[in-house]
Design brief:
This protein is an alpha/beta fold and about 500 residues long. The chain is built from 22 helices and twelve strands. Helix 3 runs antiparallel to helix 4, helix 7 runs antiparallel to helix 8 and helix 11 runs antiparallel to helix 13. It is globular and about 90 Å long.
């Protein structure tokens, strides 16, 4: 297959500080800005210089590189991968090679834009590290969360504002679901994107993946491989039985001793003390039992263990035998998944969004207990695409990039201030009035201290009257520039669909 056809484009880049983006959480801004309160909850600074130490620390771990390489080669053989993919895989045998990991659920047609941004961020970081540390190699690696069973989160996407929904009819692990039910999605995709050369190439990538592979997990692995093959990205399916077998000791400790519960709960309590909400709910047993059509929680009972909402039960001896003989049936939840990933991979950094990094921060003490090196946490890039037409409209109304991130009422005021020939902002007048009343209060206090409250009440009353006048002026101006205000509102709605960041709603295909 040829590489996707990309038209020649000219781009301009503007950088916006995280603290100017209303849609980002406090913890996200804190991490990006190096807030001291968060530092106890991660190991390394997110800087290029920090990787010198990270490499030394990770090199001390006994990662089974041969196992990893053989599993990846086995997974990539049916994908008809090109040679540079196998070259990247083979590099992982070398003790001077490390991974840069990002992960995501196997969203339909890649789902929201940040699926792509995560991968691009990981690739860029790997390339940058190679320039800074040329004696080492860095392989960008995508972990597809195919074991997840939250089908509602991956079954739909939106392209050009039109929803596409996958009606699977199956339950259990999403990655094990059949691709046969994806035919209607492909048909709708073709209808939406049309017949251009680029559209045909994009359609071919997804059609080949859905039609040539039986399981959805393999299909996702294939289209990620195809989209990013020229960059040496590797996509891995962590549900492999051989990889799970290497994780047996921790599976056993977690199921029989429930180690992570107390450790993670303590960290969560410490995070809540500084105002950071809980991200993941640790349980006594943080594993699901996975079989065809099911992925259900394992719980402790008086007689041993059972799998919720099934008839499956184990005594303690039977459970130990099941872990030994079928480790692939034990699927970690979000509390254990980072441990599993970092115990198998020679990884230096995890690239993720703000929410993901927040739940990683709940894990540091857990990693220390298991003597697994905690990776550098890298906040993925966030991007807002503004096309030429939208950029021209922004310039026409003299709005800055930062202005576009403001709330709608504030953006309206900025627009009116920019376009109006009349002065409708009475801030200066309110400030002058405040100064005048402060002088009056000083004089009143010299005569009679009891008059101070009367002066203050008069000041508040007068300021309210000026506020009312200002609102009337704005209302009058709004009526004069109603068309322009509608255009500004429409522009903001396009860039921030339903008030959310574009990257959380739009798909990469348009």
């Amino acid at each position: 297959m040829t590489d996707p056809v990309i038209p020649t484009m000219t781009f301009q880049k503007s950088l916006v500080s995280f603290d100017k983006v209303e849609q980002l959480s406090k913890r996200d801004v804190w991490y990006q800005n190096g807030e001291a309160k968060l530092k106890p909850f991660y190991k390394y600074e997110a800087s290029l210089d920090a990787f010198k130490q990270v490499i030394k620390d990770k090199a001390k771990e006994n990662i089974d590189r041969d196992l990893l390489v053989e599993v990846l080669k086995k997974q990539y053989k049916p994908l008809n991968a090109c040679q540079n993919c196998f070259d990247s895989i083979e590099l992982l045998r070398n003790k001077n090679t490390f991974t840069i990991v990002t992960a995501h659920q196997p969203s339909l047609l890649t789902g929201p834009l940040y699926f792509i941004y995560k991968i691009c961020s990981a690739i860029n970081l790997a390339n940058t590290l190679k320039s800074k540390y040329p004696m080492y190699d860095f392989v960008p690696l995508f972990v597809s969360g195919g074991e997840d069973h939250d089908f509602e989160e991956v079954k739909s996407t939106s392209i050009y504002g039109k929803p596409l929904i996958w009606e699977s009819g199956e339950s259990g692990s999403v990655g094990k679901m059949s691709t046969k039910t994806l035919a209607p999605v492909l048909s709708q995709l073709k209808e939406i994107i049309g017949e251009s050369e680029q559209a045909a190439e994009i359609y071919k990538i997804f059609a080949t993946s859905f039609e040539n592979f039986d399981t959805y997990g393999q299909a996702v692995q294939n289209y990620v491989k195809t989209l990013f093959k020229k960059y040496g990205l590797i996509a891995i399916d962590m549900s492999d039985p051989e990889l799970k077998a290497a994780f047996r000791p921790i599976i056993k400790e977690e199921i029989f001793q429930n180690t992570s519960l107390a450790i993670v709960e303590k960290t969560i309590s410490e995070l809540e003390h500084i105002g950071i909400k809980k991200q993941a709910h640790p349980r006594e047993i943080n594993f699901f039992y996975m079989m065809p059509g099911i992925r259900n929680r394992i719980v402790k009972t008086e007689s041993g263990f059972e799998v919720l909402d099934t008839d499956i039960k184990f005594t303690t001896i039977e459970m130990e035998a099941e872990i030994e003989n079928h480790p692939e049936r034990f699927s970690p939840n979000v509390v254990i998944r980072p441990l599993y990933q970092e115990s198998i991979l020679p990884n230096l950094a995890y690239v993720g969004g703000g929410g993901e990094l927040a739940y990683w921060m709940e894990r540091k003490a857990q990693f220390e207990h298991y003597k697994i090196n905690y990776p550098v946490l890298i906040r993925r890039n966030s991007v807002l695409w503004i096309n030429k037409q939208q950029s021209n409209k922004r310039a026409k109304f003299n709005l800055s990039i930062d202005n576009l991130f403001q709330k709608e009422n504030i953006l309206s005021d900025i627009f009116l201030k920019n376009i109006s020939e009349n002065e409708i902002d009475l801030s200066e007048e309110k400030e002058e009035l405040g100064k005048l009343y402060n002088k009056l209060k000083e004089k009143a206090l010299l005569v009679d201290k009891s008059l101070s409250s009367s002066v203050e009440a008069s000041k508040v009353s007068q300021l309210k009257e000026i506020d009312k006048l200002e609102q009337r002026l704005k209302k009058s101006e709004k009526s004069k520039h109603e068309t322009g205000l509608r255009q500004v509102s429409k522009l903001q709605d396009k860039l921030f669909p339903k008030g959310s960041l574009q990257e959380r709603k739009d798909n990469f295909i348009p």
